Amino acid sequence: MKKDAKIYVAGHCGMVGSAIVRKLRKQGYENLIMRTHQELDLCRQEQVEQFFAEEKPEYVFLAAAKVGGIAANQEYPADFMWINLALEMNVIHSAWKNGCKKLEFLGSSCIYPRMAPQPMKEHCLLTSELEATNEAYALAKISGLKYCEYLNRQYGTDFISVMPTNLYGPNDNYHPSNSHVLPALIRRFHEAKIQRQPYVTCWGDGSALREFLYVDDLADLCVFLMNHYSGNETVNAGTGKEVSIKELAELTAKVIGYHGEIRWDVSKPNGTPRKLLDVGKASGLGWKHTIELEDGIRLAYEDFLHNPMRAER
Fold this sequence. Notes:
The protein has 313 residues and is α/β, with parallel strands linked by helices. 42% of the residues lie in helices and 15% in strands. The protein has ten helices and 13 strands. The strands form four sheets. It has a six-stranded parallel β-sheet, sandwiched between helices. The protein has a three-stranded mixed β-sheet with strand order 11-8-13.
């Protein structure tokens, strides 16, 4: 991308989109197009078509999505499927129709099968059944990825996709029931510390293994791939390192300074037993993460403390 290229970041108010904007500006890209949900509803085809026809962005980062943890995915599966499918198809299709030079689609590691061989390589997509607790979201993300692939095959577009592992960092969602595991733990342990609660209850038995990537590292990879990668196969974004949810809870409590007991509610689901990405492809292209988990949690907690909207999101 040239420094004066016209770049649209869809979802710039969210955690991933805002990180991409920070990275682009840090690298000298200033001709950025951004619209809030109030200004442009990506689920409305007519609005999206009009926006692309008027703005004609050369490059698109599609980071907009409806996201949430296990509880939200189980309670609102229809919403997760429709909203994500609608906005993905509208943006990708309009980008193609209006001659976009390159689009990057942001997915999620939940696209991979529940019992995929670990660590998960990009080519294991669609080889067996998905995890039931987030199947609707996964199906929507797989559809977006595949639509990019099909446009490349049929029309010669240069639309790529990147599949991040669990993300965290500045501008995360700390909602008490709809957030992902790490921001949920940050909020829970912080409130327990402030309220002097003797124990904190976490979902499952703590045995599930997860990988976590600081969102600014993801943004660095996103810009890197936009400049250095073309291809139909997605690219995994992660650290190649995993931690149990029990270890994660203990580490988060340590960073926050909570010294009470951690209890486990085994009546709640664990989710996928293990979800580690093979990041050999990104490494082979010359990229590597820079922020380790404990440092990242510390940075995320600082963001939480200074985020006045955290209680409402």
